[in-house]
Design goal:
It is built from 15 helices and 2 strands. The protein is mainly alpha-helical.
């Protein structure tokens, strides 16, 4: 078994990326014509982007950030408003909205990085609450609680002489999941570089990191900016998926869902948040048959993971591998 694991570690990253592409292509086909489960696949892809981006801030830089839903909302509303009110093309609106979310993340970080622990958590949560209230009450711009309706899917693109339309769930899933894969590759390359070592040093001991000449505040701002940008990118695709946009989709409670995905999957790793996003998106759907009892089962499952597997599901998998190697 140990020899097999060592062989797996020597496999180049591009092989795993090809396997991921193959899985992405196969999933909608395996699900047949089920529109419901295809919509779940799209939700999983969006949640993976949100969990990965939060993990950069929380898992790798050690910043307890509870306002991630705000960046998601910025991406969603900015994209929709730029298209409807400013006449931007979809792709220009996506790029602009992602950049805007990143800039807001950087501005928040300049103030938030002066705080630590629960103070930072409260400040970031307050930011999400403020943004939610703006979306609710700025009726002339956001339509408030009434929401924005009739949002069109992304425009068709030409690829290899074919026109690919995104008014069906399969193509939209391929688009969003490939964007999620690219986000993963970018983050993975960042974290495998010396930048990743710098962020982990800050997470483990900020004082020791400073003694090595690391500017902790600068790198915290960096992680907030990149994390916010990817969350905003996910938000840019959300309105074209659901066709409507209401402020409650970005309430502060959603930030706790993304936090749970990171913790349950295994924070501080690349694959952990992906596992957490898949499990915590699928679990409520699989438990729907038991009615309201699903909330009890869902909550109990989260509690057991936190109590007995503080490293998340990934830790449990690694423990199983260790036992098999003995």
């Amino acid at each position: 078994m140990s020899e097999q694991l060592s062989i797996l570690k020597k496999i180049p990253s591009w092989v795993y990326y090809l396997l991921a592409i193959g899985l992405i292509i196969a999933l909608p086909i395996l699900l047949g014509g089920s529109a419901y489960w295809r919509s779940i696949l799209i939700t999983i892809s969006l949640n993976i982007m949100l969990a990965m981006s939060l993990n950069l801030i929380l898992g790798y830089t050690g910043q307890l950030h509870l306002g991630h839903s705000a960046f998601y909302g910025v991406g969603a509303y900015a994209t929709t408003l730029l298209i409807k009110k400013a006449g931007f093309s979809f792709w220009l609106a996506v790029a602009t909205s992602s950049l805007l979310a990143g800039i807001i993340g950087i501005l928040l970080a300049f103030f938030a990085t002066r705080l630590k622990g629960h103070y930072l958590a409260i400040a970031s949560m307050a930011f999400a609450i403020i943004l939610h209230q703006i979306l609710l009450n700025w009726g002339s711009m956001t339509s408030g609680p009434l929401g924005i309706y009739g949002i069109a899917p992304p425009p068709p693109i030409a690829l290899f002489g074919l026109e690919i339309k995104f008014n069906n769930q399969v193509n939209l899933f391929y688009l969003i999941s490939f964007v999620a894969l690219i986000s993963y590759i970018v983050l993975n390359n960042i974290l495998k570089s010396p930048i990743g070592d710098t962020l982990r040093a800050i997470r483990e001991d900020e004082v020791s990191a400073a003694s090595l000449g690391i500017n902790a505040k600068l790198w915290k701002v960096f992680s907030f900016g990149v994390g916010a940008m990817i969350a905003g990118l996910a938000g840019s695709f959300y309105p074209s998926f659901v066709g409507t946009l209401v402020p409650d989709a970005f309430a502060v409670i959603e930030s706790f869902s993304y936090l749970a995905m990171v913790v349950v999957g295994g924070m501080g790793t690349m694959i952990g948040p992906i596992i957490g996003a898949v499990v915590l998106t699928l679990l409520p759907e699989l438990l729907r048959s038991i009615g309201d009892a699903r909330l009890l089962v869902y909550g109990l499952s989260l509690t057991l993971v936190v109590l007995f597997m503080p490293g998340g599901i990934l830790q449990a998998i690694q423990l199983m591998k260790t036992k098999l190697n003995k």
